[in-house]
Amino acid sequence: MSIFARIAWSWVALLAAAGCQPTRVDGPGSAPTVATAPEPEAWWHGRVFYEVFVRSFADSTTGPLANDGVGDLQGLMERLDYLNDGDPATSSDLGVTGLWLMPINPSPSYHGYDVTDYYDIHPQYGTRDDFRRFLAECHRRGIRVIVDLVLNHSSSRHPQFERALLGDPAFRDWYIFVPPDEVPQVRGPWGQPVWQQSGGQHFFGIFWSGMPDLNYRNPAVTTEAYRIAEFWLQEMGVDGFRLDAIRHLIEDGDTMNDTPQTVEWLQRFRSHVKRTRPDALTVGEVWTSTEIVSDYVRADAIDLAFEFDLAAAILDAAKSGTADKLAYTVDNVSASYPDGRYATMITNHDLNRVASELGEDTARMKLAAGMLMTLPGVPFIYYGEEIGQVGAKPDEMIRNPMPWTGGLHGGFTGAVRPWEPLQPGHERRNVAAQDADPGSLLSHYRRLVRLRQSEPALGRGGVRSLDTGRRDVVAWERVEGDRRLTVIANLSGNEIDGYSLPAGGNARFLRDLLGDVALDASGGLTLAPHRLYVLLPAH
Q: Residue 490 belongs to a domain with what CATH number?
């Protein structure tokens, strides 16, 4: 019997010996609880999200946290007009309609993924009241807000883990401990040590010793996870959660990823979330292949899952100039998920930034953005991506402060120094430098976001890949009702003259919704290098 199975049976035996029954939480193999109310139409389809690292977005200019070198909620509020000014008639804002905030809970680490208090706001970011004001301002502008919820583990400095280390029976089984002479000689999915040590005690932590895994075989831990979700949905008013590292929730022997018990637990968690707030969104980080990720969605364990294979394929197409990987991935992803229930991106806070991957080539960055915004799924933009912010591993170097101007510290803070230096080149690569330039990357993102959210075929429609007859051209058709759009992208660095799709000529195209595509006398298209077109057919 594995150590994880022994822990499960030990917990049941302990409760039985005490003459009591555990709080009923359906176990693995039981039918998941079904939400009592029908789910409303999913509001997230058709929206564009923006991922924000609060620490790096904007330091406030007023209030108790002003100009301390650290981004905060007040600073984010001061910059909301940049993201969405609440006026659909303007075009000077980015136009996003959803925000994902990376962890905002108290934490000893800069990134916040080791939480010490799930019910509070990091003091460097503000207070609960600050968050409520921020959320009200977002909702007034039509922006929905989801927050990171770190379920797999807590911080090793969480009071409950500290009490568990002291042997407190109320919390000892909230984590996974083994005697010193029974430490399994097994390593984790990427070859890392997973059995950690503190003060001679050995516990399971798949990431590192500062992040002890929570024991969801203990019903009390599940009950607490439910309470945390209720708090943020009901008392704080968030619109949903991004669920971190959820493929590692419940281990089964030496299997630490994607166990049936994990999927079943998430099914019950999602049902509880829907009972608490029927329209709440759960989007999961399941960082693996489409074939495995889509299982979580098909099982209704989460509403959406991030599509890492598609992200890599978009980047590959923009970088290599060839369509093979992307064309295959578009078809595979579309066939794998029900109803477009996946979240798309190019990169995020764990990956090298797009600009660095593409050598700061503006044309290629525009091309990648165009593919992201014209494919199905719910797109997420990583902060700074829209201005070509650079950054490559280590992690701190892909989470640098946002450059707003070419001035000192990029206008991020009025402090002597920011929490982390800005990337070199921010003097020329910033919001102010691109704001009024119609040819800038920022202006291109603004057009793409507005186009996606104004065109149901892009925001909600199905997709059909088209044969292009060339390895350096990729194309797909987006359809919603009687609205049809054809997307064609020249992935190469060369102009292509007189191009026609093999399935039929281009005379049916009326115009390019992103600009002006040239048609020759025979109806052939002139495709500019690294350029994507969204074409409206004549019929």
A: 2.60.40.1180
Do 139 and 207 reside in the same domain of the chain? no
Asked if 440 contacts 361 with a C-beta cutoff of 8 angstroms, the reply is: no
pTM of the predicted protein model:
0.92
Sign of CA dihedral 420, 355, 240, 260: negative
Residue 31 DSSP code: P
Q: Are 343 and 378 in contact (CB under 8 A)?
A: yes
Render pLDDT for 355-386 as a digit per residue (tens, 0 to 9): 999 999 999 999 999 999 999 999 999 999 99
Q: How many CB atoms lie within 10 A of CB 243?
A: 26
User: Tokens 């929905």 belong to which residue?
Assistant: 144
pLDDT in tens, 267-305: 999 999 999 999 999 999 999 999 999 999 999 999 999
Query: Is 40 a member of any domain?
Result: no
**In terms of domains, do 69 and 196 share one?**
no
Say if 252 falls within a structural domain: yes
Same-domain status, 409 and 504: no
Report the distance separating Cα 305 and Cα 104, nearest Å: 21
Residue 67 DSSP SS3: coil
CA angle 389, 394, 397 (to 5 degrees): 30
- Which of the residues are catalytic? 244, 285
